[in-house]
Amino acid sequence: LALYFHSGEREEKCIIEDVPSDTLVIGNYKVQRWDIQKQDFLESAPGLGMFVTVTTPSAEVLLSKLYGPQGTFSFTSYLSGEHIICLQSNSTRFVAFAGSKLRIHLDIRVGEHFLDESVVQAKDKVNEVNVRLEHLIEQIHHISKEQNYEREREEKFRKTSEETNSNILWWAVVQTLILISIGIWQIKSLRDFFISKKLV
């Protein structure tokens, strides 16, 4: 997931990331500030920091830390589900561009273990193959976890659908019984009315 969004000073922006359990999540971000003279976003925003908060599906705070204008944060999920990742700039009251518009670039990678090319190149060919194989095995484990998580979600969705269909069926039966009961009651009331008026 790679995106950018605009934010104001101390304005909190959150995204929701659906993550399987026991999965590494790495986030890279960069903050740019709006320059009024140049009418453009500058490459860096010195003096500005980003407060990153990660909340689990059970509303526990997994990560809460202040970083610089550009940085990397990471966490490992222990629950599967929707994790809320929030970014908020720290106060810039004493900085010249206080209150200006910010652009935040955010790149989030789920379950990806990066292959260090410098380590690979420093080793001989046999070790290079070993390192690459280990990396591929990690990626396979991640894909397997993702598939298991998707199966769990599909099963939960199917159960919910079946329960909803069952409830709809019972509601239809109840409605039919109510309508039949009202019809019988109306016929009986009309018959009693006609008998009392000696019309039948």
TrEMBL record:
<comment type="similarity">
    <text>Belongs to the EMP24/GP25L family.</text>
</comment>
<dbReference type="InterPro" id="IPR009038">
    <property type="entry name" value="GOLD_dom"/>
</dbReference>
<dbReference type="Pfam" id="PF01105">
    <property type="entry name" value="EMP24_GP25L"/>
</dbReference>
<dbReference type="GO" id="GO:0005789">
    <property type="term" value="C:endoplasmic reticulum membrane"/>
</dbReference>
<keyword id="KW-0732">Signal</keyword>
<keyword id="KW-0812">Transmembrane</keyword>
<feature type="domain" description="GOLD">
    <location>
        <begin position="12"/>
        <end position="110"/>
    </location>
</feature>
<keyword id="KW-1133">Transmembrane helix</keyword>
<keyword id="KW-0256">Endoplasmic reticulum</keyword>
<protein>
    <submittedName>
        <fullName>TMD11 protein</fullName>
    </submittedName>
</protein>
<feature type="transmembrane region" description="Helical">
    <location>
        <begin position="168"/>
        <end position="187"/>
    </location>
</feature>
<dbReference type="InterPro" id="IPR015720">
    <property type="entry name" value="Emp24-like"/>
</dbReference>
<keyword id="KW-0472">Membrane</keyword>
